[in-house]
């Protein structure tokens, strides 16, 4: 069964310390950066998941709206009244237009948010591989380091023992050099990557805000056209509607709705 990348982080392993080759400060510095990166990847994974939920919810809401407007058209209740039929037909038309916008919103959110964040998250595969390589080098260095210590503790002074000790020392030096090199490289590159995360993520967030602004603004404009002229003009007469006026309009509409036969107590 294939692995679902949304269910687990690529970067999960924290770096192992390697004293006395690396100081406590050197080990701690890398560990802190890696922990921050683990958190960032988790956040990216959650953002991607929530965006997919948002797109699904928006699509489901649109489907419900389409079914409602279609049922109103087909139920026949509005056919005997010209004004009611006109309103229902206009509502159906607006719902259809909003539905097309929903499809566009989903497509744009996928292109401007999900895909860029997916590419960004793929960088953590490379980071995880680099951390894993460091772990292998730590294991190798610790092994040869301990072998050197054991050989040094022996009192054997034969030529064979001295030659063996020298070979292990050279192996330890090579392993130590490789480990210190990749450790230094990670301490240089990972903080840089971490520092640039917002430069990469912010455009996607701004894009989503603009997409929503356009979608909800257009939907509001379309549905406002369905409102009675008096009510519509009251809402759009000024950019900022005073709170008292806003409440008055709402109460007027609520009272009108309460007066309908279908909401009266029987």
Automatic annotation (TrEMBL):
Q: Which GO terms describe its biological process?
A: actin cortical patch localization; endocytosis; plasma membrane tubulation
Any idea where this protein resides? Answer: Cytoplasm, Cytoskeleton
Coiled-coil region list? 148-182
- Which InterPro entries does the entry link to? AH/BAR_dom_sf (IPR027267), BAR_dom (IPR004148), BIN3/RVS161-like (IPR046982)
List, in alphabetical order, the Gene Ontology terms for molecular function in this entry. lipid binding
GO CC annotations?
actin cytoskeleton; cytoplasm
Q: Does the keyword Nucleotide-binding apply?
A: no
Keywords carried by this UniProt record: Coiled coil, Cytoplasm, Cytoskeleton
Question: Can you give the residue ranges of the BAR domain?
Answer: 15-239
The UniProt entry, under SUPFAM superfamilies, shows: BAR/IMD domain-like
Q: Name one Pfam family in it.
A: BAR
Name under which the protein is recorded: Bridging integrator 3 like protein
Q: What organism does the record attribute this protein to? A: Mycetomoellerius zeteki
